[in-house]
Amino acid sequence: MLLCDFHVHTTYSDGALPLPEVVDLFGRSGHDVIAITDHIVNRDNGLGRIAHAIRRSLDPESWKRYRDEIAREADRAWRSYGMLVLPGAELTRNTINRDTSVHVLALGLAEFMPADGDPIEMLKEVRARGAVSVACHPHEMSEFYANTWYLWNRRRIVEKLVDLWEVGCRWDLFPVVSRERLPHLANSDFHRPEHLYAWKTLLRAEKSVAGVLAALRRATGIGVMRLTPDAAAASA
Description:
- By secondary structure, the protein is of the alpha/beta class.
- It has helices at residues 19-28, 46-53, 60-81, 119-128, 150-153, 155-158, 175-179, 209-218, 229-235; strands spanning 2-8, 33-36, 39-41, 84-93, 102-107, 132-135, 164-169, 172-173, 184-187, 199-203, 222-226.
- Strand 1 (2-8), helix 1 (19-28) and strand 2 form a beta-alpha-beta unit.
- The radius of gyration is 16 Å and the shape is globular.
């Protein structure tokens, strides 16, 4: 079973650490796989435009630097730690109303993709691009700003377009996701070093980018756990 975290942010959006420091932190703690998923925020409302103005979002230009640095750091991570680093993004549509807010991870996303417009069309585009979609923090969060209920409220409409749902995110668990028998995983939504010790995914998969993405699409052989400092030290 591979120790994985598929929801990780850097200074390319609203994370506290630059990408090389993130790689070293996760590599030293014994992770087998991480996905870098900085925000791509919508531009078609006021909240989205503010996020771009304060540089809390990737755009087509910063995406090129982001993509290239992920490739370099993935090579270093494999050589230094035997850790896979997957490219990705968190497609982010923020609104004042939590019932219309939606965040979707696109794991394995190769090229920039905007987060504007209809979220259901966005999910279709993620699928068309061959990326794995994950509904982020889809239910009640202890951190109120992360409440994004759009997909949950439409779960029977979108369930064939969403590959996986976060059943755990940061410090929170969502038992309703498992009760609904939705395919699920767990992630830290890493922004700061203390978030290292949060929910994680255990994945039965071949240790390659293609093998990990294929296992996620199958949505089998997946477990969840909380990482503790002692466990991280033991696995390092």
